[in-house]
Amino acid sequence: MTALERKGSAFQYLRVGIVSWLGNLIGALIFSGLFTNLTEILSEDPFRSGTISMISEDIIESQWHIIFLRSILCGWLVTFSMMLGTQNQDGISKALALHWPFFISTAAKCPHTVEYMYLGSTAMFLGSPMSLGMLFWKCLLPITLGNTIGGIVFTGAYSWWVHLYCDDKKAAHADGNGWGSVRLGDDD
Fold first, then answer.
1. Cα–Cα distance for residue pair 80/108, rounded to 1 Å
2. How far apart are CA 170 and CA 151, in angstroms?
3. Per the domain annotation, does 120 fall within a domain?
4. Cα Rg for the chain, rounded, in angstroms?
5. Could you tell me if residue 100 is inside a domain?
6. In this predicted model, what pLDDT tens digit does every residue of 68-124 receive, in sequence order?
7. Which of 153, 120, 140 minimizes the C-alpha distance to 3?
8. How many domains does the chain contain in total?
9. Could you please report the per-residue DSSP string of 156-177?
10. Spatial contact of 123 and 55, defined as CB atoms under 8 Å apart
11. Dihedral of the alpha carbons of 82, 84, 89, 93, in degrees to the nearest 10
12. Any stretches that span the bilayer, and where are they (predicted)?
């Protein structure tokens, strides 16, 4: 919404997005390496085979555009849940509003960027046939683009339009002549 209000430059938004993405990737790789290689938590079946088959089904065997479209839905659901969580006053309403879109996203197998940073690298550590190039080209690129589009277009732009743009239009037309506080013909 701040970008649509023209607060900040495109470079600032791009820098924050890249630093955040890289920080999440580094964190996911560290977490994946620690919990996959050092603790061997997922090295036994059914956890190992389940993780590899999930990545094979969701990423390796899926087409690029399917991954991209599912991730648009995920981006919308995640940002929508954040928006719903801020709209409620009490704790129960906030918790329910935050969790229902996440439940839907998980049940519909909608991929989230940070989730698949972890799952993709974990599957690779466990012996998945996914290469590093495939992790970036077929997993992280379509998911990142889709999540970004889903969040910006379906939640961010909508929120800006409803809460800021329409409020500005209402204020401009408050006196009924469409000129807002500018009054033509008044001699005061």
1. 16
2. 26
3. yes
4. 22
5. yes
6. 999 999 998 888 888 777 777 888 888 888 888 888 888 888 999 999 999 999 999
7. 153
8. 1
9. IIHHHIIIIIHHHHHHHTTTSS
10. yes
11. -100
12. 12-35, 64-84, 116-137, 143-161
Query: Are 60 and 130 in contact, with CB atoms under 8 Å apart?
Result: yes
Q: H or E element: which one contains 51? A: helix 47-55
- Tokens 């999440």 sit at which residue? 24
Whether residue 178 lies inside any domain: the answer is no
Nearest CA to 111 among 157, 153, 77?
A: 77
We report the CATH number of the domain holding residue 80 as: 1.20.1080.10
Q: Which of 6-15, 36-45, 102-111, 153-162 holds the top average pLDDT? A: 102-111
The C-alpha atoms of residue 147 and residue 76 are separated, in whole angstroms, by 7
Written as six digits, the tokens of 174 are: 């408050």
Residue 119, token pair as written in the block: 């799952």
Q: State which residues form the domain around 131.
A: 10-170
Spatial separation of the C-alpha atoms in residues 59 and 61, rounded to whole Å: 6
- Written as six digits, the tokens of 181 are 């506080």
Extract the tokens encoding 44.
């036994």
